[in-house]
Here is the input.
Amino acid sequence: MKAPAFWTVSEGREAAPLVRALLSPLAAIYAWAGARRLRTAPSRQLPVPVICVGNLTLGGTGKTPVAQYLLQRLKTLGAAPFALSRGYGGSEKGPLRVDPAHHGAAEVGDEPLLLAQAAAAIISRDRPAGGELAVSEGASVIVMDDGHQNPSLAKTLSILVVDGQTGWGNGRVFPAGPLREPVAAGLSRADAVIVMMPDGERAPDYRGLGLDELEIPVLHAWLKASAPPPDGPLIAFAGIGRPEKFYDALSAAGGNIIDTCSFGDHHAFGEGELKYMFALAARHGAELVTTEKDWVRLPRHARERIACWPVEAAFAQPAVLDGLLQRVVDASDENAKPLA
Here is the structure.
């Protein structure tokens, strides 16, 4: 889905005050139900640590690249990490170990295919069952992509990822705004916060985000290109939480974008849409380019004709994050006790 414009605006006509007011009772019910679930639902404790990479808003914040980074760093620290995802957008319910050679996004979802590039990945709508499968397959640490609002698995380390530009949107809970839960409630269960910015030069507005007085680590991160953009004119398209982030990063890296096509998050590209974009590119003498997350959702015949521009997470203070991860690795010898 595409986020309504009023989710990102808190004042003026575009903030749609009447719509917000009408949706406020539903938002209150949504927040109450979420808080009740967190308070009363049973939580399964696994014999290995669980790192949750979550967020407080609907839409893309950069969780998956952060999870990929954590998986790679955990390997460097000597752990045997497994990724755990619910497999959103895929038909398989799991628990199932992802095999990129045989599984496609239609079966397991796009994010698990990306996570499987960094480490072994499990999909499971039932997170405890997925965690148990990971343990049985040799996981010493589990990195769960999303799940901050899901209490079914006990977490050793909870990391929240926030987009430093859009922040908490209009500050309202769904459907009146983009929040999955009130900000204060979500932050109270976090062990660290990662603020994603467009690059390493622009510092986050910690005060504006209400993060300046937190007593937990607040880290500045961004997505950097793993390869230069394709040469020549480009038609860029994306079906992610905020396609504009992809276009801005591609342009900043030197990509010559002459047109764009935006779709909703996790969009399944149809043949008609692909035909239109191929025709658009031919008309302009341009090449089609998209994100890794979108590229894995494309039909195999289309991937041969569309460039993929990969990115990876980078951190201003990587040693701080390594310190948190080292504590998790150490906790793997202590029956996955939560960090103090």
